[in-house]
Amino acid sequence: MSVLGRLAPPGSFLWLTRHEMRVAARGLRKHSFTRYLGYALIALYVAGGCVAAAALQNVEIRPWPAALTGVLTAAIVMMSFMTTQAVLHSQRTLYESGDLDLLFSAPIPGEVILRAKLAAIAGTVMLSFAILVLPVALPVAALGHPGLFGIPLLLIALAMLAACLGLAITLVLARIAGPRAARTVGQIVAALLGGALFLFSQFSRDHHGGRVEAVFESLEHSGFGSAGLSGIPGQAAFGDPIALFILLGLALLAFWIAGLVLERLFLRGFQDGGVRLSRARASGRPVRRHFRRTLFGTVFAKEFTLLARDPALAFQMLLRLIYLAPLLLAFGHGAEGRILLPGLALASVAVAGQLVGSLAWLTVSAEDTPDLLTVAPVDKAAIGRAKLAAALAMAAPVVVLLPIGLTFRTPAGALFTLLMTAIAGSLAGLIELKLGKPGQRKQFRRNRSGSMVAGLLGMVVTLTFGGLAAAGVYFIG
Amino acid sequence: MTIPALRVRGLAKSFDKPVITGLDLEIAPGELYALLGPNGAGKTTTLRMVTGLTRPDRGSIEIYGIDAAADPLAAKAITAWLPDEPMLYDKLTPSEYLAFVAGLWRLDPGAAAAEAERLMHWLELWDVRDTRCEGFSRGMKQKVALAGALIHDPRLLILDEPLTGLDAAMARAVKDALRDQVEAGKTVIVTTHILDVAERMADRIGIIAGGKLLAEGTLAELRAQAGADDVTLEDAFIRLTRTETQAA
């Protein structure tokens, strides 16, 4: 038996974790232009990291208070986003991965399956942060600052803790909300988790006169990140063995406890995931209510129903709403409290373009049964129009928020912004209608596929009409 | 002279390699026709070309005298297609799905709703009419899709492996329903791997292999073509397709 075979015998935690990693890696192996472009950018980034490392070789880097505060702030931000990602990945693991039937029917303890899945979630949520941080941190650490090898260990600890927390949130929500609502509630909680920190930082910044430096200085002076327990992440990042021992120990303990405590909830969540997701009993209302007189009405009703029942979409919409609130502060107030209404107008157009584009992708390009529409004796253009209308109707409540906000300052400017927003949103939908590439609905939460031309045109539309809206508000307001 | 329900002339399609090479087929109205063939013989490709889902490289398709290439909407209006993988929306209920299909075929809402209710009662979907399809078994999904195929009362019904996933009782009910359709003057084309089903149900059987129609006729005619009068359809099928495989 090979060394690897002895270390990770079939059915063991390590063996299953290796399998999970292999499956995840094969999911990444797509030979496309954007992927190779991504590799090239990472290579450039690594090269930049090496140059920075060479420049910093003889510079003293030590855990001074500002750096410790910075590390803790970064750790909190990362932990927040990692937990959001962990909730989403836990949902996919529970309801979509499709291999739990096989795993739970095999003679492997449920605890081992859960820990392997947790390890896979931790690995996945760590990946993007590792790509962002390690190409710089590792060369700097290797060239004269070995203490910074604590950074990858800090990332691992954070990812493990986030994975445990994300899975626990998902399972508890599934238990409380029930299998029918678990997915939607999970997506909403993930959006709130992801956006909460952003909201808090924006309001905190606003509280300090819009100055990020003032927020940071205030945190630093209060000893945040450098004193007591709050100093542990910073010390760990700078290679302090005790801080690293505490953090990794905590992460491993959470991992071990999660395996023990969450096993039953995990199994139950998985078993409930297979049950009916909508009402089991008929409503008693007449079937006739679903039948429409026109093709437009039929297609519109179907698309609107599907959009309204899409948990991933609930996540996206809520996230946009959360990010809209700080926009009112960020664009509404300048650094000296000046009113920057044109920025608000530009943001309105950008949000409309992005949101309608996403929704139109869902309705037009991510059609679940294109064959049914092809064999139907109908004009494809009429179907397209109805789908686009459904996307616009779904986006409208979010898209009108910023123009409504503008009416308090400049009613005429708000009206002009609304017009530009409506045109930009409609054009974004039309671009998807004409140039969209067929995709699968489940791709939406990751990265929806689309043509490069459509993407570029979308940007042109946003910049043109956003610019017009901003200029209009500037001159009118 | 009666207009054939389906007339296919010189149909050809290649993907990486030729799949259909000059297929001729004529099916009379009111006939239940079973299309058989080994895996990869081109059965589904043929039917997808007939329904307008795959564009033929050459050849012509007429459905009840309507040129499917020249007037596709008219041809589609009288045709129903039921693939082996049901064309369903997981997030819609059977009622909503049937309403959507009825809307695509522009049926009168009142009449379509009544027909939907009848189909859901018949296919034992009535109790789950307001349950989303995502939790359904394959057999249940197949039943919803079958209701969708029947709701617009098609003159030509094309079904690819229609009995997949159905339990014995429902498979019997579907077979009976298909015979009922034929007795009502409709034309039904099915592909199936279950030769026993073809043997019992079909008026005529076509065997497709190597991209062309290898043999066609009633069971007795196929036996004669296979060179033995006392064999089952399975034996005749194996003899005929083996000859083709050896020739290839």
Mean pLDDT of chain A: 81
Overall structural class of chain B, as computed from helix and strand content, comes to: alpha/beta
Structural class call of chain A reads: mainly alpha
- Helical proportion of chain A, percent range: over 70%
- Report the β-strand fraction of chain A as a percent range: under 5%
Biggest sheet details of chain B: 6 strands, mixed
The share of residues in extended strands of chain B comes to: 15-25%
Which word captures the global form of chain B?
Answer: globular
Order of helices and strands of chain B: EEEHEEHEHHHEHEHEEHH
Q: What general outline of chain A do the C-alpha atoms trace? A: globular
Give the overall pLDDT of chain B as a whole number.
87
* Unreliably modeled segments of chain B: none
Order of helices and strands of chain A, N to C?
Answer: HHHHHHHHHHHHHHHHHHH
How far apart, in Å, are the first and last alpha carbons of chain A?
77 Å
Could you estimate the helical fraction of the residues of chain B in percent? 25-40%
Cα-atom radius of gyration of chain A: 25 Å
Assembly of the depicted chains: heterodimer
Question: What distance separates the N and C termini of chain B?
Answer: 38 Å
Tally of contiguous helical segments of chain A: 19
Largest sheet of chain A: none
**Number of strand segments of chain B:** 10
